[in-house]
Predict the 3D structure of the following.
Amino acid sequence: METRAPQKRRLATRQKLIDAARTIVQKAGFETLRVEDVVARAQVAKGTFFSHFEDKDRLMALLIGEQMERILSEIAARPAPESIDSITDAFAVLMDYMAQDRVVFDVVIRFSGAAAIETTELISLNFLHQTELVATWIARLQGTVIRSDVDAVLLAEGFQAFAVQAMALKFCALHDAGTHEERLRPYLHAWLAAPK
């Protein structure tokens, strides 16, 4: 069935808004994104923006979620990690992206479902995909470098919780030193390591 003209126009307008926002973010970051600038760049009325997106944060969640999926796909395409430290290292790029600044981190947490506030399909699905990927890595290493007394999915969910904690500490005045990986490693060794 062929898409009708009004629907095609609506999809084209939505894409113009997304492209305009993407350009603004690439030039100046998420913290500078304003609805007024998006509609001016897309050459549409402000009301048109709100017929496509509930608010600016929904648009940001879409852009952030798309990039998170791209990064996670790249991580999944690499060889599987062989140690707890290499699992941490594999996620460094995604963690750096999610915690690049307070605005992005806030949107990630708000729309991940983790804070029980809101979800958006892309970010919340990315969190699910992260857990699935880490669970497969953990299952491969259970009984050797990773404990085998706990289900791999539960261990992967713990990995994700500790990763969020390590990223959040970046914004804490008492714990802002070091990289995400440096903050995450002690948690993961305590949580995942097989008994010696």
